[in-house]
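[Target chain]
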Amino acid sequence: MSCGSALANVCPECGTELPGQARFCLNCGHQLAQTGSAQTAANDTRANLERYIPPELLNKLEAAKKGGKTEGERRIVTMLFCDVSGSTAAAEKLDPEEWAQIMNGAFENLIAPVYRYEGTLARLMGDAILAFFGAPIGHEDDPQRAVRAGLEIVRNIAPYREEVKAQWGIDIQVRVGINTGLVVVGEVGSDLRVEYTALGDAINLAARMEQAAQPGTVQVSSDTHRLVEPLFDFEDLGLIQVKGKSEPVHTYRAMGVKAVPGSLRGIEGLHAPLIGRDKEIETLRQVAASLRQGRGGIVAVIGEAGIGKSRLVQELRSELTSGSGEDIQWLEAQGVSYDTSRPYAFFSQVLRQAFAIKEDDSTEEVRQRVEQALASSGQTQEERNNVADAVELLLSHGANSIADAGGETAKRKMFEALLRVWRQTTTPTVIFSEDLHWADPASVELLMHLFQLAEHAPVLFFCVFRPERQAPSWQVRTTAETDYPHIYTELALAPLSSEESGRLFGSLIDIPGSPPQLRQMVLDKTEGNPLFVEEFTRTLLDTGAITQDEDGLHWNPAVNLAETPIPENLLALLTSRIDRLEEDARRTLQLSAVIGRSFYRRVLERISDPETVLDREISTLQRSELIREASRVPELEYSFRHDLTRDAAYNSILLRARKDFHLRVGETVEDLFSDRLEEQAHRLAYHFYEAGADDRALKYSLMAGESAARLHANHEANAHYARAIELLGRVESDNQQRTSAYVARGRTLELSGDYEAALANYEQLHELGLSQGDQAMELASLVCQGTILAIPTRTADAARGRELSERGLNLARELKDHNAESKVLWNLMLVAYYKEENRDAAVGSGSHEMWAMFMNTSKVKKLMSAL
């Protein structure tokens, strides 16, 4: 990275040479000491730059700081590094005061796009900046915000570059690097905007992206590219070698926003039918028929993110365009989360389509296009001029423009002029508002003013938004159902049922050989949300759990389902919802997540801070639809509405804090349920295991395994015993306890029909016995292996069964273990009966007949006498 002065620093931690004005090491993140003059200059620069922060963002940042959200936590963050290339040579030619003037002007162009997209300016480093998108304020679209900001930085610096060249005779340029990944973020100083920092490999890679970028370009890593690829044009730069990385890194150059952006949803090569929305589709068909007959209306489709709103839009549009040549005008606006504060930014999209206005059209061209569109409308010249004035005023996006034009009077005149645009239309028209929850309040007010058109003209207002009562869009619902109930239709989308979710998953993924718990895991975590089902399926493909080739889909048996990560876009979506909470409610949600998917109120009360008003925070979480009351009997219990919400809250907690929380939960449950420890053993085992309290985790893992085995819950029992075996390797224990754990686990595997895993388990016990020199442990293994190999299953092996049983018989007699001796004799009897030449026939016969034949008394006696 180039530096802003001729002097340079060396990082005392890693030895990296750094710019003289650098405050942090770009290689390891170490904070550098500053001289008094440098610190004063930095403070002056910060004070100067604060004036560029939009008031709305400043309020959010201050609220985050006040609420404590700058404490350390784990987050997926998109990081943007940007520096002024050529600054070293330029600084040598100029007086320091002149160079400071140039850099201050450059910083204005660098930071304005960051703040527009609600990024956080984390560091100023002489001639460079570091910005975060996703911390301390998270948005569900932070990666695309960062790329947009980077492209605007490169574009906006061009006029200033020419100004600097003309005034000082030097050429400066910027380069941007972007990466997305998991980091630990937190506040390292008192100033939120410059001291909030991140640590982790992901931030180092972001710095390398910037260093490798060509001047005047935006370079992104593959992790960012994967999340935004449908939205931007990219040049594939291939693999590049990056310092600190053992393997080359795939990188891309962002060229600009796609003319026709693709969808971030959907899975290439897989298509899911629309499931569980038959009633809604029929309603939309009736709405479409009414519009064709010249009747307008207002339709609101309301549902949480990913519930299927966009698919219904597709169905309506398909229905309207499937007729015999009807001329239907479709005008649409899509809300974006970073434009909620720009007046009329949302509705201006409708006007640009209605009058074919381009983004770069001049004022004169705008008026010409409006005049041309209205030439045959029957309006007078004065009325057409009023419309042109209204369009010009609205496209300025400025409340100040309206105030300058006459304030409230000018606004009413503009609203009435736009009302006349569609009042006399005979062409069926759809004004479609997608993601209306992100519309600016001015656009929503105008939209509701135009609702009166639906009573007299073939105009259908089709509004799609989330059930967020604080958003301006909720007023649309209130106004429509209050003032226009006779033409208002509301479709409130509920989650899919378990059966419907299963059908959706099956339509996407139907793979022979996949584990039976796969479907249930996905359904448990997604809970009827189609987007969540799709994204979990995509994650299974991306992580290699499922592979796809010309022959179809294949399951990778080496994958551990428990380690399947939360899809990053879903994590961002859920994190953005959690970030809206006040700090006390947020901490309550995190503590609840540590307890589990469901949690008792009195457990939460015991582990919460004494000053927390728990009833208030629980009510907040319920109103935010993050948790819900699950039961009042036998005691008050709550649960997370989505398992993914619980995962998102849990994953944000620092690892060291998690251990402390789990220990507090375990001790609380142990105390509150001291008379029901066996019932709570599975919870206690989990919490003490996560807390690192191995002795207590072992105790309760064995207890939970025994309890589950008695209930024939073999899968659960196996999991508990497997954890116990792991813990036995870390704590002081005797070999008898180890043997019992291995034998118990093997038995649950046998009862589950997983004989291969049971054999592998007993073989591990045998190896452990050999390494410990413990013959009793060896004997236990030989007995169990002999049983599996002797009975007619797919793992049966009479020869090996006889060999191991004979070894076991000798060892049992040597140890005078009569119990083991009788078991070995029984195994040898089974081998003799199911001898190798009869095994296939025995396996092929029905189990009832087989055992009836075996239990014939005379035959048993004969076999025993032969032994």
